[in-house]
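User: Could you write out the 3D structure of this protein bound to copper (II) ion? I've included everything you need below.
Assistant: Certainly. Input first, then the structure.
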Amino acid sequence: MPVPRLSLIAFACAALMAAGCDGPQHGAVIERPAAAPPLELQTLDGGSFRLADQAGDVVLLYFGYTHCPDVCPTVLADWARARRLLGAKAADVKFVFVSVDPARDSPEVAHAYAMQFDSSFVGLSGPEAAIDRIKRDWGFAAFPEGDTRANDYGVAHPASTYVVDRQGRLRVLYHPGVIVEDLASDLRKLL
Amino acid sequence: MTLLAACGRVAADAPGDNPLASHAGWTRTADSGATAAVYFMLTNRGSVADTLKGVSSAEANTVGMHVSMQQGRMMQMAPVTALPVPAEDSVAFQPLGAHVMLTGLRRPLVEGDTIAVKLEFGSGRTLEVRAGVRRP
Ligand SMILES: [Cu+2]
């Protein structure tokens, strides 16, 4: 006997609600979120940024490089627009750009770059060993493309924005072309 | 008479007239020495396909055509040496896709400035793209 269409829809809704209709709806939502890998880098004021210390805030992370002509500025400009859409709630969201090109990006350069998009943004870099450790802990590669002697080489880097929730769990990945309104609406649900 | 003269098709078919045009060119503010991407819409109003073969600009030490591509979980860029521009069609240079890349900017790009990029085509035609500088 064919199942009436309506009850199928009802079932789908129930399943969605069980999964949490209140959670993020866009991007690649991680089904069983676990603690995000560690991330710690020195900041310009002599302190350090520790991801583990950010509990209570939602943290967006992008691993890129400041010589990136297209993708990184597109992502950071979209972040800035999403942040404006959040209004006062943006105070509980941290937007963090991490350079995977430590040879050219000092912590100063990385931070100045991130701040061009929004003065609240954090830009981080560090010694090559520290960046290598992050790549290992987070399980991604990042490597120069082209002749590194020329100083105008590109760097292959992860495509996605990683979002860590207020409990420090890696929750959602967004591809670079995510619609800003969708990103903002998801962030609101995580707050 | 006036109406006929204003018709784009008639103008495009006139001998010596360039069927290639660009509009909506823009780039982001950037520091001297930095890297920038130039975006624009390229239109071929002619009835013959062409190929974009070269890009140049006085604004940067190196100028090239690139396309950003997602490869698995990674974001990479590939150089483009020839880009087909079909007849009566448009090609978009846009974020996360094709762009003219300026490496080693010779001056800071300030909001409100306009920069020029020269395009060279297989047909021998050239086109100057003008791109306004916007805040990121
Ligand atoms: Cu490029």
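The helical segments of chain B are 2-5, 8-13.
User: Perfect, thank you.
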